[in-house]
Batch of 2 targets.
Target 1
Amino acid sequence: MDGDNRREKLLELLRAAENPVPGHELAKMLGVSRQIVVQDIALLRVQNKNILSTNKGYMFFSGKRTNGRCERVFYVHHDDGQVLEEFDTIVELGGRVLDLFVEHEIYGQIQVNLIINNHQDAEEFAKKLQNSKGKPLLELTEGWHYHTVEAASERLLDLIEEELMKKHFME
């Protein structure tokens, strides 16, 4: 399969996937190395294809919110030992954590896609954070950071906000 056909197949796989697909799985499906997948993703991004990189793999993002869900950005504060509690608070009330971003005084906005859908995702992320030698982004801003949260209704987002305030993640 030539490069153009492979990249088209890669887009089809990502569009069909409901969850992020790890690079090594895409490589296996396409019969190429993971490095070829990374290069293909870079080429597709240059063509303005909406491919997100998450800590769980790649996913296609249409950029449209036609699913009837609502989004809200929450400005929160905590240390890295409270990540699991924060995420669980959100997902247990029907939210989905789409990203994390910080406003850095030198670099400006730094954003990463998370896609935390449930307790298992939250737990996996917290374990990865605990076992990593890397530092979380929230350490750049003394614990202050933003999350874009998606939920089925504004009322659920209100409940999430109330609970985050009760647990002192928000002021």
Target 2
Amino acid sequence: MKLPNPIKAILFIIGCEAAGIFGTIFTMPSITSWYSTLTKPALNPPNWIFGPVWTTLYALMGISAFLIWQKGFEKKEVKKALAVFLLQLVLNMIWTPVFFGLHNTGVAYGIIVALWISIIWTIIKFYKINRLAAYLLIPYLLWVSFASYLNYSIWTLN
């Protein structure tokens, strides 16, 4: 049975949102305990902002990946671009348990720097295939840039 494209797009979005849901396993218990005790930088946003922002970013990531996949998964450049996308998604998923689960802000900072680089790499790969797919990742890059600042600040302040 062949699924229609809107259903496939929704499956890509759900897959990316699942990465975010995985992170909440580690985030939720730490927000009111460990995280609340940390010294945070002046630009630290309120905790409630993170959920809506990440939900939106994961949806954009899913749409972006779908747009690339739609160009033909049998094509070598599409497979490579989606492999880089998967790499950044895995780094995204690793960061949360290291930061919120293990409370290791230093190692988490190294991971988020690698994540930031892999997002740029993904944008470059996607841009060659579908510019809209690349542009949809710009808010993600900007947010991870800000999150990198927060991670570094929390690491050095604590």
